[in-house]
Each structure stands twice: as structure tokens, then as C-alpha cells.
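User: Sequence in, structure out. Go.
Assistant: Echoing your sequence, followed by the C-alpha cells.
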Amino acid sequence: MADYAVVIAGGGPTGLMLAGELALAGVAVAIVERRASQDLTGSRSRGLHSRTIEVLDQRGIADRFLSEGQVAQVAGFAGTQFDISDFPTRHPYGLALLQYKFERILAGWVGELQVPIHRERDVTGFVH
């Protein structure tokens, strides 16, 4: 593996987003991921909140997610639904989007930023 300033363990949503942010800042970054592909069995997440969509919009990639998901102006917590259409944001809605789709779109974005994802590798230790 080449020398990188930062190596991220895990190519899930957090690792992918962090890699994209670091790449945009000019940091040499790579991701190490145990899965062979971006495919997921099942989904740990089913949607995005307004603030997440705002961050994606700041990076110019929100439309990629919006075109794949379903906008909903209601949010829920503990079985109670809330109308969020009047939230003070450019994106007063949530987005129904399964995690595997979210990850696939993020992986495409970090690929455009030339971030390598080293697949089928486990992180078993760290030496600095």
C-alpha cells in the first residue's frame, strides 16, 4: 500500500464521507474495507435527515441522493410523526433512502475524488 496521510478503517457512510472531506482538503487518504464490494445485506439505515442533506448540498452532491430516494416532509420519533415542512432550512424534508444506496452513491463520489478503497482487507493492528 502506498503512503497516505490518513487511512480510514471502514467504507461505510462515515468512512466514505470522511474520505471525501479529507480528499477535498488535499489530504492523501485511502479506505480499507473488509467487504469485497459496496453491496450490503440488509440495511442499517433507511433515510437521511435535513441536516445530512444540507451537508451533501454543500458538497454539490445532494441531487445524486435526491434522485434515488423519496422525499418526505414528516419525521418520526417513538411512534410520533412530526411535520417538518416549515423547518428553517433549504431542505425541509427527510429522504427515504436505504443505506446500500447511500453508500453506493458516496463510493462513486470518493472514486471521482481519486480516493482508493482497498477491499477484502481487515484492519488487525495499527503502527505509527
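User: And one key feature?
Assistant: The chain has four helices and eight strands.
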